[in-house]
Amino acid sequence: MSHSLPQLPEPEYTVIHMGAAPEVPARIAADIQEIGVPAGLIGYEYRALNEAAFMGGIGEGGLVLFGASGFFGRIGIDVATRHVVHTPHIASASFSHVNRDLASFHRCVTATIARFPFYEADEEESCQEVADELRELISVLDGSAVVRAGFWETFCDDVAMGDYAGGNV
To answer: C-alpha angle with apex 114: 77 to 42, nearest 5 degrees?
Structure first.
């Protein structure tokens, strides 16, 4: 089955102050309402959901999901650690690290959007250089963010492969 997603507008850093389902722990619901979450990143890498939802049975305390990633993935907060995490599928029992906290996620999203567009279609030789620059930038903002097979490392790998050439979002 082939999935086709429509082209998204140019990325712009915007904050959404979303509500939360009743099952979401109060302290995390308050953070999501008061601090907010980024509306999106670039393309379909991350987009905010309409409402934060609780997903139990994962980790020590469950996850509070606030964003979609790709076709099936979700971005959320690990209730036990307050780390921002990525789960590859809503039905998955596993997750990987994204950022040490919601504020760090905001900083990394803001900096990445500010750097966009990364290169043009005829600049393939600079793809790896831009990816390395983004890895360094994200690492400075959150030393825990660029981990093997993690959200930001995978994003930078996509940049290195030229997935964002010509402003493809």
So the answer is: 55
pTM score, whole prediction:
0.90
Question: In angstroms, what CA-CA distances link 86 with 63, 71, 105, 124, 133?
Answer: 10, 13, 12, 29, 23
Nearest to 55 by CA among 47, 66, 45: 66
Burial of residue 4 (CB within 10 Å: 0-12, 13-18, 19+) is exposed
pLDDT at 118: 85
Separation of alpha carbons 77 and 142, rounded Å: 16
Identify which of 50, 40, 49 has the alpha carbon closest to the alpha carbon of residue 116.
40
pLDDT digits (tens, 9 = 90+) for 130-168: 999 999 999 999 999 999 989 999 999 999 998 887 655
Kindly state the tokens that stand for 56.
């139990």
Q: Indicate the angle between helix axes 127-141 and 102-115, nearest 10 degrees.
A: 150
Question: How many helical (H) and strand (E) elements, i.e. helices and strands, does the chain have?
Answer: 4, 7
**What distance in Å separates the CA atoms of residue 61 and residue 43, rounded to the nearest whole number?**
30
